[in-house]
Amino acid sequence: MSISGSSHKAKVQNSQPRAVSREEHRHATTAALQAALAREEALLLEKSEILRRQNALALEFEHRLLNSLQLVTDMLTMQCRTAPTPEAAAQLSAAARRVGAVGRVHCRLHVLDRQEGVEFRQYLQDLCDDLASLLFHDPRRAIIVQGPTFEMPTALGIPLGFIVNELITNATKYTVGNITVAQEPAVEWSGTDRWSAVIAKSICHDT
Fold first, then answer.
1. Domain 117-207 classified CATH 3.30.565.10?
2. CA torsion through residues 19, 22, 26, 29, sign
3. Which residue from 15, 75, 95, 167 could staple onto 203, CB 3.0 to 4.6 Å apart?
4. Alpha-carbon span 190 to 193, nearest angstrom
5. pTM for the whole thing?
6. What are 205's strand-pairing partners?
7. Cα(165)–Cα(167) distance, rounded to whole angstroms?
8. Torsion angle of alpha carbons 44, 49, 50, 54, nearest 10°?
9. 15 band by pLDDT with thresholds 50, 70 and 90
């Protein structure tokens, strides 16, 4: 009886789960962390590849768009040379200039994509010159840029350029005379608030 009892007791003890040691727990935790890091690295690589492909597609789109605009400009210029009347030649020449200006404005708005900073007043001046050649039929009208010269981060310069483009386009539809873009940075502010103030009162109209 005693032998049988001892054997049963030993079987019960052997069937109980073995306690996990501290070292084994540490190894299991390390393995789990390494697996998580590997998954994270794989996701980051996948994200980087997606961004690279998107950038490549965007550059290809920009290239094709500018080529198409240049092709239209060249065709209009060729038709201008063979136009049957001076009036038709003038209309075709004006159309060619406007299509060319569309390409220049597009380039200007995206020229900062691969830069870290921009001298904003000169950037605005170049953008406004291109917009004036695109939007104004009257040579007496102009877009005037006023304000100090200063540097700003590209991350802020790009959206401000699009804002100015939209404001000037709308102003051209509903006003006459010159359009003035006045930079008024608030010197008492700092950071993004300062740059926001540049456009707060940027567009005024000379009647």
1. yes
2. positive
3. 167
4. 6
5. 0.55
6. 179
7. 6
8. 140
9. low
**Structure letter (DSSP) for residue 137:** S
In 3D space, the residue among 108, 166, 172, 102 whose CA is nearest the CA of residue 137 turns out to be 172
pLDDT at 201 over 60: no
pLDDT on residue 205: 52
Backbone angles phi, psi at 142, to 5 degrees: -150, 160
CA–CA gap between residue 21 and residue 19 (Å, rounded): 6
Read off the pLDDT of residues 151-188 as tens digits, 9 standing for 90 and up. 888 888 888 888 888 888 888 878 778 888 887 655 54
* DSSP code per residue over 3-64: HHHHHHHHHHHHHSPPPPPHHHHHHHHHHHHHHHHHHHHHHHHHHHHHHHHHHHHHHHHHHH
In whole angstroms, what is the distance from residue 127 CA to residue 105 CA? Answer: 6
- CB count within 10 Å of CB 89 equals 15
Structure tokens at 189: 């502010």
Segment holding 100, helix H or strand E = helix 86-110
Under the banding of pLDDT at 50, 70 and 90, the label for residue 75 is: confident
CA-derived radius of gyration, the chain: 33
Q: Are 66 and 106 in contact (CB under 8 A)?
A: yes
